[in-house]
Write a structure and sequence with these properties.
The protein is globular, with a radius of gyration of 22 Å. It is mainly alpha-helical. 78% of the residues lie in helices and 0% in strands. It folds into 2 domains: 408 residues, MFS general substrate transporter like domains (Growth Hormone, Chain: A, Up-down Bundle), CATH 1.20.1250.20; 56 residues.
């Protein structure tokens, strides 16, 4: 591909990935308005978020293999059109059930789109220097997407209508579809990358059970029979999935993808980074709106420093140093800086502390996470064989989704239980209930943020001990032509 077309192709790929990532957060600020408009109960409103993450996280591995079978460009374009249609359906929802179904459909097409986007990026940029720049931009998109979603959600909800948080995906998807049609080269199909039906059932079933279990833990509690059954059942299914992958003739997740210690380190790092990041986004949103009294727009604007930090860390730090220093010398300091940011944020009180704690903490958090995330993306997909790039990309995105689900459920449960204990311990006759409620809420957020910091420190420890590559991965040469197997594909 010509140099100019290659960089325009990056714009198309990044635009599609941005749409997928920001759609995980753009509806958060709009959720109260949607709940009132569609008369949702407090118990059911979580499905606006959960329906999307369930379908997305549970079907990613299958989506990666579909990309290998049907061609990455074809899968990418089908994902864009389907995502646009599902978004339009959700925006026009006349009932809560219709909105839940549309969000689940968005997750299905996102599971096709996300691994195709990452594998297209990995196979489009093969020159090490250009690859560093491309992954820097892509890493910035991944890191900043959640914050951009909160900003966009605030503006759209306050000045238009909550439905536009879904409608906005339609023009983005159509522009990306037109760009993909013109700019992307036809993706290679691998005739030996057949459907592994038992693997798809076990892997997707295990992921769905885990994500569903973590999403239900917030409302039901960790000791609930359904939650425990889902979590242990999901782990059992994933164990069977791993066992089957070692025996399957053409596995859904090739063992070469997860046997490489660099990729394993990258997957675990991404999982732990998103555990901390998604939980902190949730707490900061409630802190700024519930405690400081910010409007949706002001809350979105207040997130801009973390976006600036992520873009800087990805494009100006990691991209420039990726081919000069060992990857762990970027990931470990990045995660330590992000952990220090959470230690600062965890000290806020009920009095305004944006300038003194939140602002510097957001800048540090963005810079550290942007550096670590971009380097992890490169490690996860850099040296994988082209025929397995869809599976590697899907595994990376799965780690991100699982981390986000675990972080939201785990940290939210911690915050809620700590808040309840604080009220019980400090309440009494003559207590200012409103002030006590604010103090208890902030205390719960702070304790959960310390746990998020622990997740980042664990990620730094894993990256420092598992990842030992002396340099960034070298792109794998193109596969040799493989003859069509005699057996029919499953």
């Amino acid at each position: 591909m010509a140099d100019t077309r290659r960089w325009w192709a990056l714009v198309v790929i990044a635009l599609a990935q941005l749409m997928v990532v920001l759609d995980m957060t753009i509806v958060n600020i709009a959720l109260p308005s949607a709940q009132r408009a569609l008369d949702m109960s407090d118990g059911n409103r979580q499905w606006v978020i959960t329906a999307y993450t369930l379908a997305f996280g549970g079907l990613l591995l299958l989506g990666g293999r579909v990309a290998d079978l049907a061609g990455r460009k074809n899968t990418f374009m089908i994902g864009l059109i389907g995502f646009a249609a599902a978004s339009a359906l959700g925006g026009a929802a006349a009932s809560a059930g219709m909105l839940f179904g549309a969000r689940a459909l968005q997750g299905v097409f996102a599971a096709l789109l996300a691994p195709s986007a990452l594998s297209l990026l990995a196979t489009t940029f093969t020159d090490p220097k250009e690859r560093g720049k491309a992954f820097g931009i892509f890493g910035a998109i991944i890191g900043a997407g959640a914050a951009i979603g909160l900003l966009a959600g605030g503006f759209l909800t306050q000045y238009l209508d909550w439905r536009w948080c879904l409608y906005v995906n339609v023009p983005i998807a159509l522009v990306a579809f037109a760009g993909a049609w013109v700019l992307l080269v036809p993706g290679e199909r691998h005739p030996d990358a057949r459907f592994d039906v038992p693997g798809a059932v076990l892997g997707c079933g295990g992921m769905l059970a885990l994500v569903y279990g973590f999403s239900e833990a917030e409302s039901r509690g960790w000791r609930d029979g359904l939650v425990l059954g889902l979590l242990f059942g999901g782990l059992a299914l994933l164990g069977l999935f791993g066992l089957w992958q070692t025996r399957a003739r053409v596995p859904l997740l090739p063992m070469t993808v997860v046997k490489d210690r660099q990729r394993v380190g990258a997957f675990l790092t991404v999982l732990l980074v998103t555990v901390g990041m998604f939980g902190v986004f949730l707490f900061l949103t409630y802190y700024m709106q519930g405690v400081l009294g910010y409007s949706p727009v002001r809350t979105g604007v207040a997130y801009l420093p973390i976006t600036v930090g992520m873009v800087t860390g990805s494009t100006q730090v990691a991209a420039r140093l990726l081919n000069r220093v060992p990857p762990r010398l970027l990931i470990v300091p990045g995660l330590l800086l992000a952990a220090a940011a959470l230690a600062l944020i965890a000290q806020v009180g009920v009095e305004p502390a944006y300038a003194s704690h939140i602002l510097p903490g957001m800048l540090m958090l963005g810079l550290g996470m942007g550096t670590a995330m971009m380097t992890s993306v490169s490690l996860a997909t850099g040296s994988v064989a082209p025929r397995d790039s869809g599976a590697a990309s899907a595994t990376f995105n799965t780690a991100q989704q699982v981390g986000g689900s675990i972080g939201t459920a785990l940290l939210n449960t911690i915050a809620a239980s700590v808040t309840t204990r604080y009220v019980t311990a400090h309440g009494g006759p003559g207590t200012d209930r409103r002030l006590l409620g604010a103090q208890a809420t902030v205390h719960g957020f702070n304790v959960a943020t310390w746990w998020a910091m622990g997740a980042l420190l664990m990620g730094a420890l894993i990256a420092g001990t598992v990842i030992d590559a002396p340099h960034a991965p070298v792109p794998h040469p193109a596969d040799e032509p493989v003859p069509q197997p005699v057996e029919s594909a499953l």
